Amino acid sequence: MGQQRNKSGLGMIKACKVSLAYTNEGGSELEATRDYFTGPSFDISLPTISTVAAGQTAYLQCKVRLQGDRKVSWIRQRDLHILTVGTLTYTNDARFSAVHVPGTDTWTLRLKPVQVRDAGTYECQVSSEPKISRSVLLNVAGFLDKTTRSSHFNRWNAHLYE
Known about the structure:
By secondary structure, this protein is mostly beta strands. The protein has strands spanning 2-5, 12-23, 29-37, 41-42, 49-53, 58-65, 72-76, 81-85, 88-89, 96-100, 106-111, 120-126, 132-145, 150-156.
């Protein structure tokens, strides 16, 4: 059993490789190898960048395999504010909420409506030992100027706040 970095480069996950050698009915020797994760890990197929127009709803997703009894939290990196733990919200900003359908691996941070100041990095964190996390960058792009009814396509991102 050993330590392995996930492909996003964030957090550590425990993994082991199991090899099995056997002889089939025809007398041929075969070997099978399979990787097993012994603790929570992230599904890295989900996007790590989300671009949403100001005023719309942002859905930042995180899929946690083998979560067990560990808690999933969403944290805003700009100020390290804990936004949610499980489905409970820990911010006074009512625009933030956690969405989780019981029995699924997906944890979603919903932000409605998105404001330009919301741009930045958000972290999905699992309370495992060691703790693992996966970052999602929220870009806020394009807003409608209500005074002129013209569209502006300024792109705001985390670099404005660092």
